[in-house]
Write a structure and sequence with these properties.
74 residues; mainly alpha
């Protein structure tokens, strides 16, 4: 009778990383689909989303208007 070979801990860790990666990919795909749907259902007219998140280095309109000309060349 053949005995069952015990699974190594390294193999279990690899499989766990693959499961986590697949889950993360599915979540990203779902978020992208929701964003696309929201963009399609948004009213036309160029109204910007005031709740949009700024990325690093982005400047808001208020910050851009408050900059003095001499600060631009500093």
């Amino acid at each position: 009778m053949a005995t069952k070979k015990q699974q190594t801990f390294a193999k279990m860790q690899r499989e766990q990383r693959v499961r986590e990666k697949r889950q993360l990919k599915a979540e990203k795909k779902q978020a992208a689909a929701e964003a696309k749907l929201a963009a399609l259902t948004a009213p036309e007219g160029g109204v910007e989303d005031s709740d949009a998140e700024l990325e690093d280095g982005d400047v808001t309109v208020e910050e851009a208007e408050s900059v003095q000309p001499e600060e631009l060349h500093a």
